[in-house]
Amino acid sequence: MVGIATLGLNVRNGIQSQASASSDNTQWTLSQLDVEFLNFKEAVSEAIAGRAALSQVRTSYNIVYSRTNTFLQGKVFEPLRSKDTYMLPLSQIRSFLDGYLPLIDGPDPALQAALPQLERDANQVRPKVRGLSLAALRLFAVNADAQRGQIVETLVKVGALTALMVVLLLLLVVLLLHFGRLSQRHAREVELSLKRIKSIVNNALDAVIVADPQGRVLEFNPAAERIFGYSRAQTLGRPLSELIVPARFLAAHAAGMRRMQRGEAPLVVGKGRVRMTALNSELSEFPVELSIAQSEDTEGMIFISFIRDLSAEIAAEQELVAARDRALAGEKAKAELLAVMSHEMRTPLNGMLGTLELMQDTSLSPRQVGLLGVMQDSGKLLLHHVNDVLNIARLESGKMPIQRSAVNIAQLVAEIIANQSPNSKSNQNTLQLQVSEVVPHLVELDDFQLRQILLNLIGNAVKFTQNGEITVSVDYEATEKTLRFAVTDSGVGIDPADLERIFEDFVTLDPSYTRAQGGTGLGLGITRRIVENLGGAIAVESRKGQGSTFRIALPNVSTLSAQELPVQPEAARALPQTLARGGSILVVEDNAINRLVVREMLIKHGHNVVEAVDGEDGVRRASETKFDLIFMDISMPRMDGMAATRAIRDGGGPCKAVSIIALTAHALTDEVERFKAAGMQEVLVKPVTGAALTQILASYCHPAPAPSAARAHRTEDLLDLHMLAELYETMGESLSQSLMQDFIKQVEGQLAVLLDPANPLPLEVLRREIHRLSGSAAMFGAKAFTQNLREIETLCKSGAAPEAMQQLQGLPPLWAQTLAALHQHAHSPAVQL
């Protein structure tokens, strides 16, 4: 009892000492807030005077901020947080610190500029810091006294409880005698259990090896004998390093054993299954899966190794990998073959179609004109099939990257429907568009790939529907950022048994010789690949004779506001120039047929043509002669078109600033950007047609006229009334009214940006904005306004900035007349523009 009393006294003294130390530490922490805040204020003053760095201000701020966090979150300060006298000044101090947190974490100039105000605010908060420290110290002093009294009372109770514990100990002695008998019974059970475990180990299919801390074998089961070729007697007591560790791993094994003996963290023991290489009695290495567990027996620490021979499994895996690699190599070779063959087939097709177009301008009999038309239609159809195969090859090889840009969904779908309307009307179909009110005005998507998806689906619906209805629906789920399309038709429909295979390549559901519609069966396969390339999903619902509905879901489609539209960098341009009729043009093309086609088309336009057979020849001719315009093929031997363009631009020759037009079959967005980055101005996609060539030449042959004074235009000059009527007929009154309102807002908003004298746009950015605006104006029948925009775009392309800006000033009065005409001649009287 005397010992218990002495222990209680020692415990009491220890508790009092610990309580005093805790209180002293708390009081020191409270006083430090005052000192650290004063250091912070002095750091601000020193920084204002230029004698201290801003980093010192940030450090002092962070210390004060950390200290207030301690007061707000520390358990020792929990009693204070229930007191208004403590929380009120603390919240004011914290509010002051939070208010300056953005400046502290922000750039140096902003913080330097705010230092004077920071000093004034710190001076105002200083008394509150001082008051908080004193109030908290007083409260802790009172609480500390109360706690010490409670500790004394607790110790008295501990003494009483100690006496009770003595009684309980006597009872425990009795219980121990009882448990002793139970332990003897348990020992017998353990002995039986060990026998069962030994039986399990001896019959296990995997090797089980037990070793001591020095790596000597203590147990070697029959499976280990079979796997390693040693008998149990041969291994007991011998080091594992002599038996199963390959010579090249002996040093690592010895290092691991030393690490275990020093008590350091193991690298293999207890880390689960590890693949390693082992050695058998015939000194042959083989792969194993090893798992080592650590345990103890009567002699001390032991290590139990479970080892499985992986020779057969590894061989099977290697064969599987080899088979996979062969399959992948075959798929890659197939995709590359398709791409090469498609490109090689396009080259003669381009020559054939161009030559046929040239033949149209020759004297032909009516029969020859008919035969020529059949040849052209057949060539175009074949080119379409080749393009389909090329698209598949690009998608399969991952060479069709996603190029995101701002897309007006309603406008894009309306353009596609307008494109398909003639075919739809020829089949006596009604083609409608339904755009949900929740669909955003602008989204970020790959315009090219989305357009191809919808063209394929709407084109199929038109092709397989007669005297029916086709509806294109667009919806948007803002929470999931998912854009949804549905193309529904009342056409021939699809048998449910065929729904699973319609997205496979070369699948036509009517393969007979009498089928009504032609096609290769690639369209839906390409559509599926593009949808998956965009991360989306495609599904179909259909019944034979009851029409079909194809649904597209594109996830992670972000919306954009007008302010978020990306500003494109100004592309490389040639110096301002125009090309008069009879100009000198260089055509760089390795294919003789393609050279002939382009040459004859240019000669028909009245120009003089010089030919170069490859990139090196083109660079040489451009360095010797000043040309007015250069047409440059991309894929050529010895030197490709991009390398030749860069050489001309960097060479300092007479054609350094001449505009260069790319001739290519590659028109993906990223490829076009690479062409322009190399120094090209335009891209003319093969097969070259007279219309496309004429449009390119128009940008360089005719300088746009100066804007005429604002004058009154007739309605038929201002508006394409037929286009407006077709818009309302196709889209319906409600959607047309909504689209027209968006168009008017777009024009007025863009005119304000284009004509802002305080923020003039770079010439290339101006051209892009004008091009975008002219596309919208054309769709809504603003004929004269569209023509003026295209003239300005031509000036921008030719680098004539002053003339472009001059003509730009004439747009507002022309738009005012156009807007008045739109109000007056709205297709439906119910529409209020």
Topology diagram in text:
Layout: H1 2-48, H2 54-73, H3 84-99, H4 101-105, H5 108-203, E1 207-211, E2 217-220, H6 222-228, H7 232-235, H8 240-243, H9 250-261, E3 274-279, E4 285-297, E5 300-309, H10 311-359, H11 366-396, E6 405-407, H12 409-426, E7 430-435, E8 442-445, H13 447-463, E9 469-477, E10 482-489, H14 523-533, E11 537-542, E12 548-554, E13 559-560, E14 584-588, H15 592-604, E15 608-612, H16 615-624, E16 629-633, H17 641-651, E17 660-664, H18 669-677, E18 682-685, H19 690-701, H20 715-718, H21 721-731, H22 733-754, H23 763-779, H24 783-797, H25 801-808, H26 811-824
Parallel strand pairs: 7-9, 14-15, 14-16, 16-17, 17-18
Antiparallel strand pairs: 1-2, 1-5, 3-4, 4-5, 6-8, 8-13, 9-10, 10-12, 11-12
Helix pairs in contact: 1-2, 1-5, 2-3, 3-5, 10-11, 10-15, 11-14, 12-13, 13-14, 16-17, 21-22, 22-23, 23-24, 24-25, 24-26
What does this structure look like?
The chain is an alpha/beta fold. The strands form four sheets. The protein has a five-stranded antiparallel beta sheet. Helix 12 (409-426) runs parallel beside helix 13 (447-463). The protein is extended, with a radius of gyration of 43 Å.
Brief summary:
Helices cover 58% and strands 13% of the residues.
Helix fraction, binned, reads 55-70%
Could you give the count of β-strands? 18
Q: Determine the structural class based on helices, strands and strand pairing.
A: alpha/beta
Judging from the principal axes of the Cα atoms, what is the shape?
A: extended
Strand content: 5-15%
